[in-house]
Every structure is written in structure tokens, then in C-alpha cells.
Amino acid sequence: MLTLLRQPRWLGYVALATIFAIACCLFGVWQWNRREEALAAIERLESNYDRSPVAVAEAIPDPAAFDPAKQWTPVVLEGEYLLDEQLLLRGRWRGGEVGFDVIAPFRTTEGTVFIVDRGWIDQAPGAERPVTDPATPAGPTTVVARLRPNEGDIPGRGAPEGQIASVNLPAIAEGIDGDAYVGAYGLLVSEDGAAPDDVAIATRPVLDEGPHLSYTLQWFVFALFGYAAVAWGMREELRGDAPPPKPKRERRSDADVEDDILDRA
Q1: Model confidence at 150, in pLDDT bands (50, 70, 90)?
Q2: Are 105 and 180 in contact (CB under 8 A)?
Q3: Are 219 and 28 in contact (CB under 8 A)?
Q4: Which domain holds residue 109?
């Protein structure tokens, strides 16, 4: 095989196998990183979801920033909803049906506005409106919500007036007077100690790490296939170049010789 590796043709095959192996390893590392991200998301959920609520200013000291490690942390807010600034988040699925999430800005007693996703409401058949209007409470209210990061904008998706396609916090804050939290918003847990009746609040998500570990192992195994194919090709070529085996001389017994003599006689 070392003789073949001196030939440019086989050196090219080895180079192609190396490029293929590098690509497979990169995909394997990518799948491994995705698994690490999934495990981190599971850890955040398990660590934060059932914690006791803390003041929103304590969980988010800077309204313009958000620490991803704080996701799912319950926060408590005191103030009132800005009913005139309420929006409908379109295209949200629940139990196999499409509807809206009710997005309600909430002005805290400190004067800062925090965006609350109050929950899901069904969409009227064939209409761009919910079946019923949300009954968001007016006046002083105490809200508990779990933190979620800003969704940002979704390119190519629009919405009619009064509706939005995603929770893009900076865009929502542009139409609200005063400072607003633009790094995170909250999924409603309760209002004045009870779950609302007009919407279906978000339930605890079920997270798993997915098949990323098996995909990682598969990509690393694939990386070896290129070299295995080159080795097999070299072996087959060496077999074809080998001289044919010499015929084996058969040893004959005395009886065989006597039989030949008698046959010729």
C-alpha cells in the first residue's frame, strides 16, 4: 500500500477522504454543541421554574438586558395593565388549534413597563379575531409571570393593526410612553393570586435533549468511511496487479504410474 500512496492518483483519493472526514467531524461537533444547548435549557427549566417569585427589578436589574440563565424565573409585579396598548400575538397553537396570545403591557409602580403574555385565546373560525375579547383586569393588579427572552422579529411575517407576529420587545416598546423592559417578557402565572378565566395560561414545557448524541456518534463514524473506502480500493488494486498463482504439482503414487503404463500398453 505504501507504493500506491506515492502515486498522485491515490494521494488525491486520500486528500478527498480527509476533506470528507473533516466535514463529518464539523457536523459532529455541531450536533454535540446542540446537545449541550438542549441540556442547558433543561437545566434552566428545572432550576428556575418552581422558584419563589422575586421582584422583577431584582431579576432584571437592567431593563435593556437579560441574563439567559434567568429564563423561567418567576417574578412579581405590582401596578396595572395598559389596556389601550394591548396586542394580539397571532398564529399561536394550543392543543392542535390556532389562536392568539394576549400581549398586555404592564406599568409597574416604579413606572417601568413590563410586557406580559397573559395566555392563549381561541380564534374565531375564518376570522382574524379571537372568539371572545380578553377580559384583562383594570386597575391595580399584582401579577406573577415567568421570564422569557425577547423573541425578536420574524422576517417575512406580518400582522394587521392591533396584532403582532412575534414578541419583538423593542418594537412593542416604541409605541409605549416611558421606559420598558426590552430584554425579556413574562408568561403569566397568576393575577391577584389566581389564574385568569378569560385565557389559557402557558403550561410547563416538556424538554428533552433530542437525538443529538446519536447524531454526533454517527457523524464521527461517517468520518472513517472515506478512509475505509480508500483502503478497500487500494487492496483491490493490489490484488489485480498480483501475478497468478503457480499451479501446484500433484504428487503421483506408484499405483498411478503403473496404471498409466498399462493404459499405454
Answers
A1: very high
A2: yes
A3: yes
A4: 51-191
